[in-house]
Amino acid sequence: MQASRSEFLQIRGLRYHIRQWGDPQAPRLFLLHGWMDVSASFQFMIDALQQEWHCIAPDWRGFGLTENSASDTYWFADYLADLDAIFDHYQPAEAVRLVGHSMGGNVAMLYAGVKPERVAALANLEGFGLPATDPAQAPRRMRHWLDEIKLDLSMRPYDDLQQVQKRLQKNNPRLSDARAAFLAQHWARQGRDGKWQILGDVAHKRNGPLLYQVEQIMAAWRQISAPVLWIEGAQTDVSKWFGPEPAFRTEIERRIGHLQQVQRHVLPDAGHMLHHDQPELLAQLLEDFMPR
């Protein structure tokens, strides 16, 4: 495995963890992890890269080794502002090469539409967005949020790393023992009581009070000027949040239609965590796509 190193920055009032691999003089590749994940999740893909890159991957606020926001709700716009500050630190004068998985892909796509001049090339790994909403859902959604923030939520503790590993393999049965063991040590941390806790603020489990406005997001996607590499896993299960598969596929095709420049690939024998399932194929696609 290629060794990573950690750097901590003050980003908008939080101590932010930035994981890096490779020569700082090499072309930079920014990697954005998904919900309930951590920056080390990209390790296997990075190990498969054939060219020299300086890979830079933050732990989002409230995940991994980055501080929690100390808020009862995480706001999506904060991810964009955090990302903007990270770019200003590492690459202020040049458009970036950007890779995002799942939630990280959604952040990357929105950012590339809001500030298109800052993104040179973008790879979106399973960042489909969220299901469309109806305004009639708003009162119930707000009421649910008001009730939920009163609840004392907690994350399940684990007795040892083997239990964490099994949890990861339950989420993704394709994950080998070796890869699950590696991820477990970065996905959880041992507390003073000897138990292992997932490195994710439990507040991320709460639904926010605001509805997902898909047409606002699509307005941003239409503004993306960078070429987009759109990659899905052949066995992705994301459709379970959108409804029946035909409706999901119709909606995703509609969303992709808003992009100016897009290359599309489906990775065989890969689910939602395609960077774990097919890191070699993914690395090859990224290196063929990304300018140097």
Give the helix level as a range of percent: 25-40%
Count the beta strands: 10
Count helical runs: 10
Give the SSE order as H and E letters.
Answer: EEEHEHEHEHHHEEHEHEHH
Shape label: globular
Strand content: 15-25%
Low-pLDDT regions: none
Helix/strand structural class: alpha/beta
Q: In this structure, how is the largest beta sheet organized?
A: 8 strands, mixed
Order of strands across the main sheet = 1-2-4-3-5-6-9-10
The radius of gyration over CA amounts to 19 Å
> Overall pLDDT, averaged?
97
The CA-CA distance between the termini, in Å, is 23 Å
Brief rundown of the structure:
The protein has helices spanning 43-48, 76-90, 103-114, 138-148, 161-171, 177-187, 214-221, 245-256, 274-277, 279-289, and strands spanning 4-11, 14-21, 28-32, 54-58, 96-101, 119-125, 188-190, 196-198, 228-233, 262-267. By secondary structure, it is α/β, with parallel strands linked by helices.
